[in-house]
């Protein structure tokens, strides 16, 4: 009787061990952790932009002065490069070129007298701070524009150059594409655009853009 009982206990113990081993083998393994690299603003980019500009022109001669507003649309492109540091700060350099639609007909109420600016551009340094995919930045540097004064008989053009400063926000909608909103103030300085006629130009600009990041 004792032998039968011992054999039964041994058989039960062996079967329990087999079931326990099967249970251990059937427990699924936890998936391996996948590290997602944080987004970085470092690298080159190129994009297009458009918006509106509000340009003030102060004309002066030996006989007096007058102010005219030249407002209109702006469209162009930009290219740049960013370096992002481990503390979240981003340093960059950017250049852009735009065309301005801001001509004014019958300047000073004189029929046939037209003025405005055509191409403008800038080279700016940028400093910003990245909140993951959002980059808030300030920028400043050199700017220039081509202004003209046209009569029925002649056209005078001059290139004005000065300084620009502004701020904006870039937001990465994907790893390779970002959108932008920006405000800028341009001071183009003053110059004689026609004999005896001096003009001082400054401009406020609001732009939106989209770019591809490499």
UniProtKB/TrEMBL annotation:
SUPFAM superfamilies: OMPA-like. Keywords: Cell outer membrane, Membrane, Signal. The keyword Signal applies. It comes from Neorhizobium huautlense. Gene3D superfamilies: 2.40.160.20. Residues 40-214 form the Outer membrane protein beta-barrel domain. This is Outer membrane immunogenic protein. The keyword Signal applies. Pfam families: OMP_b-brl. It is found in: Cell outer membrane. Residues 1-20 form the signal peptide. Belongs to the Omp25/RopB family.
């Amino acid at each position: 009787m004792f032998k039968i009982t011992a054999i039964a206990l041994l058989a039960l113990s062996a079967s329990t061990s087999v079931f326990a081993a099967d249970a251990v083998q059937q427990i699924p393994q936890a998936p391996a952790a996948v590290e997602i690299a944080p987004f970085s603003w470092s690298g080159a980019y190129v994009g297009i932009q458009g918006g509106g500009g509000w340009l003030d022109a102060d004309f002066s001669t030996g006989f007096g002065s007058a102010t005219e507003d030249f407002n209109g649309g702006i469209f162009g492109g930009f290219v740049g490069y960013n370096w992002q540091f481990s503390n979240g700060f981003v340093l960059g350099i950017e250049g852009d070129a735009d065309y301005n639609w801001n001509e004014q007909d019958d300047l000073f109420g004189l029929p046939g007298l037209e003025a405005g600016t055509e191409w403008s551009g800038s080279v700016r340094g940028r400093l910003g701070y990245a909140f993951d995919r959002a980059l808030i930045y300030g920028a400043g540097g050199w700017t220039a524009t081509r202004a003209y004064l046209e009569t029925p008989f002649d056209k005078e053009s001059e290139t004005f150059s000065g300084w620009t400063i502004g701020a904006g926000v870039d937001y990465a909608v994907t790893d390779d594409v970002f959108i932008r909103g920006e405000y800028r103030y341009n001071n183009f300085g003053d110059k004689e655009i026609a004999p005896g006629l001096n003009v001082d130009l400054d401009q406020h600009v609001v732009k939106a853009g989209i770019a591809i990041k490499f």
